């Protein structure tokens, strides 16, 4: 947690201590068996409590004001606005304006370089509409739900776990709960989204939580499926859903991906695409929406070997980890290397740890403060029954606290198994054995000439049933046939097999390869959440009052506009130089903004700083004679003077992280006017 939030946490603790002292003295005064407390002591305690409360309120108001100012900036400069705004908007839907779209594009380009290209991943793009059968098989139809409660009078809907968390936050920030009670409440809040409907209902009642605004009673929590349902085609006989995640289309394309990869394991597939979730009460901007962009990776690996070939690259990197056993009370993180975390089995395997570390490097390169980033392990009752281990990347945000932005799950072989069973497809990989083995094969071979006459159209169903029998089942069938007949059930029907219908074959087979269903390690990134987190981390200001200037310290690698171009004075000659620089940058694929206004250079810098432009290129009267311009660094406000022909290469290399501005200062020297 960064310094700002540590100060707030300390202020909460001070208020708790002052409140506890005042409460103790008040109880003493009412107790006739004890002497009255010193009036001066009581007055001092009450004054200290009032002072501590004002201090905390001031800190929280400042944080909330900063959050609102960021939200205002995002709307005012058209980063992100509510969809259909002139019609009043629709909760959970947002449009990205020019700088927001450019930021998203730069973010995704960097994500592809960092993950897809660096890791040799296979990228696909698939349909958003998914047939009912696919999501029924994956378990989404039955289980993809959040618990909802309703205002019994108004009918307004709320997500039960979020109501619980928000109520607890307010209780703690009030300073009216003891430290012991705070520990208990924090543990409840950390478990909120893992509770059953009954457990959630019990906690809501225990804490006396009512409907926001109206104060009306709430219904008991009940599940609400989050998928948007639709019909495929006009008949109404082919139901489908807007996909709630992009992962399933990677799983159903596994055979083709494995074939494309020339049967080599392990390998990873990636996809960037829209997903849709009919959220109960989306009220937190880009953090909880109904249509959002996901960037997902499915890394297929041998279940018996989850080591990673590049683990040595990151094993010494340290991160703030929050294992499940630490998630009580204040939930203190441990700062540990990924190598040590795997060695101590805090993180289940090398591949999962490798992707956690790569995600950390990516998020920090995007501008996330390392002190505001942690990885939280899912609680046992929070994980899916098939999962081996799960960790969420969480970022501490103004006004929202810890927010999940990316999930990292070892999904075992669940998805491939269920899709293989439902479709009767073999979704397996193979690996060579160190030494070939001799395996005794026992199989039931149907005599189709005889079976065809006996079972007619059902002969195919019986054949498929026999081909799918395991060795022990074949031996049982053989024993039954010795008595003259065997009963089987195939395709929902019962059939009587006679010895002439099937031949039991037994032979030795040399096996050089082993088939296995791969396990899946899945890093999944919520693009909108991360973009909001980047903006939250980048948002800052200098000065106060009229001199206050807002700055978005977006890293150059993802900044939507890489450079601003400014003429110090307005003249045709300088405009021509500026236009030539603009063309040079555009030819390098670098988005820039040529400010042709006649305002002062200081105001031009201020406007560009507000939308996160990292570098400002200024053309002055000397540029006509020396063919040089100044490049200003947004974060340090330092400048260098460079030949015009060097500008495109310098800006490109700065934005591709090939050089730093400090290196440019060493090469060209600091320019001071």
Task: Kindly describe this structure.
The strands form 8 sheets. The chain has a 9-stranded mixed β-sheet with strand order 3-10-11-21-16-15-14-12-13, sandwiched between helices. A 5-stranded mixed β-sheet has the order 25-24-26-27-28, sandwiched between helices. A 3-stranded antiparallel β-sheet has the order 4-9-8. Helices cover 40% and strands 25% of the residues. The chain is globular. It contains 23 helices and 28 strands. Helix 15 crosses helix 16. A hairpin with a 7-residue loop joins strand 8 (228-231) and strand 9 (239-242).
Mean pLDDT score, rounded? 92
Query: Which residues form runs of ≥5 with pLDDT under 50?
Result: none
The end-to-end distance, rounded to whole angstroms, is 40 Å
Oligomer: single chain
Features:
single chain, 673 residues, alpha+beta, 5-stranded mixed sheet, 23 helices, globular
Topology:
Blueprint: H1 3-30, H2 39-76, E1 80-82, E2 94-96, H3 98-117, E3 122-124, E4 129-131, H4 132-138, H5 140-143, E5 145-150, E6 157-159, H6 160-174, H7 179-191, H8 197-206, E7 222-225, E8 228-231, E9 239-242, H9 247-252, H10 254-260, E10 267-276, E11 291-301, H11 311-314, E12 318-322, E13 334-337, H12 338-343, H13 350-365, E14 373-377, E15 389-397, E16 401-410, H14 414-423, E17 429-446, H15 448-455, H16 459-467, H17 471-482, E18 486-490, E19 493-497, E20 502-516, E21 519-526, H18 527-538, E22 539-542, E23 549-552, E24 563-567, H19 572-587, E25 592-595, H20 601-610, E26 615-619, H21 623-626, E27 628-633, E28 639-643, H22 647-655, H23 661-668
Parallel strand pairs: 3-10, 12-14, 24-25, 24-26
Antiparallel strand pairs: 1-2, 4-9, 5-6, 5-7, 8-9, 10-11, 11-21, 12-13, 14-15, 15-16, 16-21, 17-20, 18-19, 22-23, 26-27, 27-28
């Amino acid at each position: 947690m960064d310094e700002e939030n540590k100060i707030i946490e300390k202020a909460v603790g001070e208020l708790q201590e002052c409140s506890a002292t005042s409460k103790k003295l008040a109880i003493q005064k009412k107790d006739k068996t004890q002497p009255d407390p010193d009036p001066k002591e009581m007055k001092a305690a009450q004054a200290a409590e009032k002072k501590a409360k004002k201090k905390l309120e001031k800190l929280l108001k400042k944080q909330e004001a900063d959050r609102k100012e960021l939200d205002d900036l995002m709307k005012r400069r058209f980063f992100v606005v509510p969809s259909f705004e002139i019609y009043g908007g629709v909760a959970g839907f947002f449009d990205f304006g020019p700088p927001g779209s450019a930021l998203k594009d730069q973010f995704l380009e960097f994500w592809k370089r960092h993950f897809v290209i660096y890791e040799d991943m296979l990228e696909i793009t698939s349909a958003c509409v998914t047939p009912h059968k696919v999501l029924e098989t994956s378990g989404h139809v039955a289980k993809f739900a959040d618990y909802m409660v309703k205002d019994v009078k108004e009918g307004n809907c709320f997500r039960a776990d979020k109501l619980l968390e928000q109520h607890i936050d307010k209780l703690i920030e009030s300073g009216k709960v003891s430290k012991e009670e705070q520990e208990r409440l924090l543990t409840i809040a950390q478990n909120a989204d893992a509770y059953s409907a009954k457990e959630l209902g019990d906690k809501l009642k225990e804490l006396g939580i009512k409907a926001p605004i109206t104060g009306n009673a709430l219904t008991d929590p009940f599940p609400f499926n989050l998928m948007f349902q639709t019909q495929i085609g006009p008949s109404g006989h082919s139901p489908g859903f807007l996909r709630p995640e992009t992962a399933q289309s990677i799983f159903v394309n596994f055979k083709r991906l494995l074939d494309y990869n020339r049967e080599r394991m392990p390998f990873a597939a990636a996809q960037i695409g829209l997903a849709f979730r009919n959220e109960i009460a989306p009220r937190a901007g880009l953090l909880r929406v109904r249509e959002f962009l996901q960037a997902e990776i499915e890394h297929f690996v041998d279940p018996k070997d989850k080591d990673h070939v590049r683990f040595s690259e990151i094993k010494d990197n340290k991160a703030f980890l929050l294992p499940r056993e630490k998630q009580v009370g204040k939930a203190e993180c441990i700062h540990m290397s990924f190598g040590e975390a795997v060695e101590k089995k805090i993180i289940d395997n090398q591949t999962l740890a490798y992707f956690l570390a790569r995600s950390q490097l990516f998020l920090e390169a995007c501008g996330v403060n390392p002190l505001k980033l942690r990885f939280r392990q899912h609680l046992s009752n929070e994980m899916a029954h098939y999962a081996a281990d799960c960790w969420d990347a969480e970022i501490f945000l103004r006004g929202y606290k810890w927010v999940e932005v990316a999930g990292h799950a070892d999904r075992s072989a669940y998805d491939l198994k269920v899709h293989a069973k439902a479709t009767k497809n073999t979704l397996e990989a193979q690996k060579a054995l160190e030494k070939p083995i001799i395996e005794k094969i026992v199989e039931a071979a149907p005599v189709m000439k005889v079976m065809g006459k006996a079972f007619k159209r059902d002969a195919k169903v019986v054949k498929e049933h026999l081909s799918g029998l395991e060795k022990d089942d074949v031996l049982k069938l053989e024993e039954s046939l010795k008595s003259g007949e065997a009963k089987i059930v195939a395709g929902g029907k019962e059939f009587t097999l006679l010895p002439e219908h099937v031949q039991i074959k037994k032979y030795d087979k040399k096996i050089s390869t082993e088939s296995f269903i791969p396990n899946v390690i899945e890093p999944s990134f919520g693009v909108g959440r991360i973009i909001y987190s980047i903006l939250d981390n980048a948002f800052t200001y200098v000065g106060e009052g009229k001199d206050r200037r807002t700055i978005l310290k977006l890293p150059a690698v993802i900044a939507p506009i890489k450079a601003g171009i400014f003429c110090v004075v307005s003249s045709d000659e300088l405009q021509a130089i500026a236009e030539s620089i603009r063309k040079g940058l555009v030819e390098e694929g670098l988005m820039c903004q040529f400010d042709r206004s006649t305002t002062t250079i200081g105001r031009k810098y201020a406007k560009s700083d507000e939308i996160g432009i990292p570098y400002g290129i200024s053309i002055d009267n000397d540029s006509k004679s020396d063919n040089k311009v100044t490049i200003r660094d947004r974060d340090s406000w330092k400048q260098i003077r460079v030949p015009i022909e060097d500008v495109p290469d310098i800006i490109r290399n700065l934005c591709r992280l090939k050089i730093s501005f400090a290196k440019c200062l060493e090469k060209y020297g600091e320019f001071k006017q």
